[in-house]
Design brief:
With about 140 residues, the chain is an alpha+beta fold. Helices cover about 30% and strands about 30% of the residues. The mean pLDDT is about 95.
Length: about 140
């Protein structure tokens, strides 16, 4: 791998996901963390899964735009929604799974849209980093 183009730096303090804080070195991201109510926590603040979903959806959307432009296609009204779930594994630890729902408007044919999504999944850095360790479901809709 070549030299990094960019390195994000974030520091978690306090009790981590259980009432801590995550801050980036430039101060642009500064969030309180809390365990969601559905996991027995107080809720009321973001959590690592939400942050991961936001990062993955935006990265995947950029990858989708890239592969579309390489194929000389213009995407209209496209969006990517990432659902990142945490669950107990067979080993009684916790693991992640993800579902990426991609919507492409503008009248692009369903088979072309599905090809774009598959190609984006091959180049998205988040998809590459999680391949083989995080089960991912891809869903494509067109309008």
């Amino acid at each position: 791998m070549s030299a990094p183009l960019y390195t994000a730096v974030a520091t978690s303090t306090g009790d981590g996901r259980a009432g801590g804080r995550a801050v980036t070195d430039d101060g642009l991201l500064d969030v309180a963390l809390a365990i969601p109510r559905s996991m027995g926590g107080p809720g009321g603040a973001t959590n690592p899964e939400q942050l991961f979903a936001a990062g993955w959806s935006s990265c995947f959307h950029s990858a989708l735009k890239l592969v579309a432009s390489q194929q000389k296609l213009r995407l209209v009204d496209s969006s990517v929604t990432a659902e990142v779930s945490i669950a107990k594994t067979d080993a009684d630890s916790l693991g992640l799974s993800a579902a990426l729902a991609v919507h492409i408007g503008g009248g692009i044919a369903a088979d072309v849209a599905e090809g774009l999504v598959a190609a984006a999944h091959q180049v998205c850095p988040y998809s590459l980093a999680t391949r083989g360790s995080v089960p991912v479901t891809l869903t494509t809709t067109v309008a």
